[in-house]
């Protein structure tokens, strides 16, 4: 009986991650005054932060390359562990595209 209750509890704790199923990516979003934001979120707590951050930075560099400029990171905001109950690895990068020096 206790095992059944434990299984039911685990199912409902992790059900939101099963239903959401995929990662969330914002794409590049302009925030005004030549400031942009890009965010990435993993689909589960089992993936690392490194890949998410690298993918977000690649997207930022692609945005700035469209105008022949370089990325200047203004701020990064990362989700803090533990990565459970919907708090999955997530990164948000605010950046500007600046002329090469």
Order of helices and strands: HEEEHEE
CATH topology: Gyrase A, domain 2
Total number of helices: 2
**CATH class membership:** Alpha Beta
Shape call: elongated
Mean pLDDT: 82
- Strand proportion: 25-35%
User: What would you report as the Rg, rounded to the nearest angstrom?
Assistant: 18 Å
**Helix share, percent:** 25-40%
- Helical/strand content category: alpha+beta
CATH architecture label name? 2-Layer Sandwich
Number of structural domains: 1
> What can be said about the biggest beta sheet?
5 strands, antiparallel
Tell me the span between the first and last alpha carbons: 68 Å
Low-pLDDT residue spans:
15-21
Tell me how many strands there are: 5
Quick overview:
This protein has helices spanning 2-20, 49-65; strands at 24-25, 29-32, 35-41, 70-78, 90-98.
């Amino acid at each position: 009986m206790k095992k059944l209750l434990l299984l039911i509890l685990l199912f409902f704790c992790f059900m939101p991650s099963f239903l959401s199923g995929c990662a969330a990516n914002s794409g590049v979003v302009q925030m005004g005054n030549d400031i942009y934001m890009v965010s990435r979120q993993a689909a589960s707590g089992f993936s690392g932060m490194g890949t998410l951050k690298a993918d977000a930075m690649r997207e930022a560099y692609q945005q700035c390359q469209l105008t022949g400029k370089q990325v200047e990171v203004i701020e990064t905001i990362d989700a803090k562990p533990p990565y459970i109950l919907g708090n999955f690895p997530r990164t948000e990068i605010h950046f500007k595209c600046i002329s090469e020096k």
